[in-house]
Amino acid sequence: MKYTYSLQTPSEDFCPITAQVQGAVAESGVTEGVCLVYCPHTTAGITINENADPDVVRDLLLAYDAAFPDRPAFRHIEGNSAAHAKASAIGSSVMIPIQHGRLALGTWQGVYFCEFDGPRTRTFWVTVLAGGEEMA
Ligand code: ZN
């Protein structure tokens, strides 16, 4: 089952989407399987990281800025090559196991839509697949 979500993003941030992803899993009725969260954009991505201390996201944004600064040598006419580099580094998708009808995330893990070139209206897809029951 595939579910489509849209969100309004700020200029640059990690937007929490765990609730929407868990909602897709619940609506699908799948109790054991996997969940693919995919971002169909080239200057945004999907990641899993800490959802407890908001300073972690703030520090990650600083780290990505340091790793991928805007450079005068960039040639891409749109002028957002740093955002393309950040999106490519973070990746377009995550795959999460589903156990007992819930995302099998660690205690401190949350799913984030990572915006690097907003504000924009963005889309992400959640595909829920059944299977992978635990073997005795
Ligand atoms: Zn571009």
Main features:
136 residues, alpha+beta, five-stranded antiparallel sheet, three-stranded antiparallel sheet, 3 helices, 26% helix, elongated, binds zinc ion
**Uncertain residue segments:** none
Overall geometry: elongated
Instruction: Give the biggest beta sheet.
Output: 5 strands, antiparallel
- Find the structural class using helix and strand composition: alpha+beta
Helix proportion: 25-40%
How big a fraction of the residues is strand?
35-45%
DSSP E strands, number? 8
Order of helix and strand elements from N to C terminus: EEHEEHHEEEE
Write up this protein.
- With 136 residues, the protein is of the alpha+beta class.
- Helices cover 26% and strands 37% of the residues.
- The chain has three helices and eight strands; from the N terminus they run E-E-H-E-E-H-H-E-E-E-E.
- It is elongated and about 60 Å long.
- Zinc ion binds at residues 76, 78, 80, 84.
- The site of zinc ion (ZN) has 4 residues, from loops.
Detail the topology: elements first, then pairings.
Blueprint: E1 2-8, E2 13-16, H1 18-28, E3 33-38, E4 44-50, H2 54-67, H3 81-90, E5 93-99, E6 102-103, E7 109-115, E8 121-130
Antiparallel strand pairs: 1-8, 2-7, 3-5, 3-8, 4-7, 5-6
Bound molecules: zinc ion.
Question: Could you give a quick summary of the protein structure above?
Answer:
The chain is an alpha+beta fold.
